[in-house]
Amino acid sequence: MSTDTAVYRASSASPTDRRQLSPASGVALDTVTVVGATTTKLVRELENHGRSRLGHEWGSEYVLIGDGRAHLSATTRGETPTVRLEWSVAEMLDGHNIYPMEAALLPDAVDAALTDLGRRFPDVPVIDDVELYRIDISKNYVVESTSTTMANIARVPLVFAKYDSRHYRDGCLQSMSRGSKTQWIARTYNKGVQMREKAAITQDKTQAAVLLALADVMDEVLRVELQARRGVLLRRRIQRIMDATPQALDALARELFTNGRLDVTTGGKLVLAQRLLEIGPELTDAQMRAVQLYLFHRTTGTPFPGCRHSYEDGRRFANKYNLLALSMIEDIEPHRLVWDDGVELVGSAALA
Predict the structure, then answer these.
(1) Fewer beta carbons under 10 A from the terminal one: N or C of the chain?
(2) Tens digit of pLDDT for each residue in 30-63?
(3) Distance CA 299, CA 277 (A)
(4) What does pTM read for this prediction?
(5) Is there a single domain that holds both residue 35 and residue 65?
(6) β-pairing, 172-179 with 335-338?
């Protein structure tokens, strides 16, 4: 790593060891974007290296930082010239992002990156002069089937956002992104599949071999990435690097994990029956009938057998109690992702 600042991973696990797929601290990071003030000198320097994909008045370049690659860009738009740096802090340390970086290392990682770039480019700001623009909080889950887990979660409708994108291959769900797109995104995908896709396009044969070895280790590992952008970060008062404490990021992650509906228990008709018994005392007989009719309508695709008011009641309570994650006709074993432990609970444990 070509920096003076000592940044290292606390875990001694090798890249082909699944013993510790996420840090024990519970909060880990991958992609980070910072912005800060600069001068036209840096903009011109980057423009000389090639026209930016961001358009006119932008200069940019992909640069090596540590064992990874970063996108450095600068613009003269706005009142003062601005520089933006986006990179994977995990890849910076390890050469890959299999293991997210412990959140406690963020100040050291940012300082190391900016210091390194400051030696190569003019007027790169220091850590105290940059703000967070984006941060990805990541966690790995070893699951029985990544496709099944994502398909179960996909049953659950979003409440706080509209963006819901899914990617299928050979009839199996490979990745899913949910959120508001401009503010936050909760993304899940098969990490092993992603590593194989990277290996297929890399021109470095040695790197491709490493990626394929990592892909074998990460089969059926579900990667959860909670991407928070500037608006959400400002609302959470996570503006400067020093604001991004493990505690603050953990609270943010829990919010996005819930907003993305990744915390919901999914399952089949037996689980649904139990949930209906639990919420029964909170609903009137008419409301309970509306819920059951609505769930039957959604499960079978048949017309709703009732009035508009009953339909709206059924939909409202089904969403409120997360009942759309449960099937009335399928014997699906209950599943639930747990943020605290970074595990997927299956069967009776998911109902506890």
Answers:
(1) C
(2) 999 999 999 999 988 888 765 544 455 678 889 9
(3) 19
(4) 0.82
(5) yes
(6) unpaired
Tokens of 4: 């003076």
Domain boundary pick from 236, 259, 282: 259
Contacts of 112 (CB under 8 A, 6+ apart): 1, 3, 4, 5, 7, 65, 66, 92
Listed in sequence order, the residues at least 6 apart from 22 whose beta carbon sits closer than 8 Å to its beta carbon are 28, 99, 100, 138, 139, 140, 342
C-alpha dist (Å) from residue 172 to 145, 146, 325, 337? 10, 9, 18, 19
pLDDT of 51-110, one tens digit each? 544 455 678 889 999 999 999 999 988 789 999 999 999 999 988 898 899 999 999 999
Mark whether 211 and 328 lie in a shared domain.
no
> Terminal CA-to-CA distance of the chain, rounded, Å?
45
- pLDDT tens for each residue of 157-166: 787 778 999 9
Q: Is the distance from CB of 59 to CB of 159 less than 8 angstroms?
A: no
Q: Two tokens at 160?
A: 């706080």
Number of domains in the chain: 2
338 part of a folded domain? no
Shared domain for 74 and 159, answered yes or no, is yes
Ordered alpha helix ranges (H), 12-58: 40-47
Please state whether 26 falls in left (phi above 0), alpha (psi between -120 and 50) or beta: left
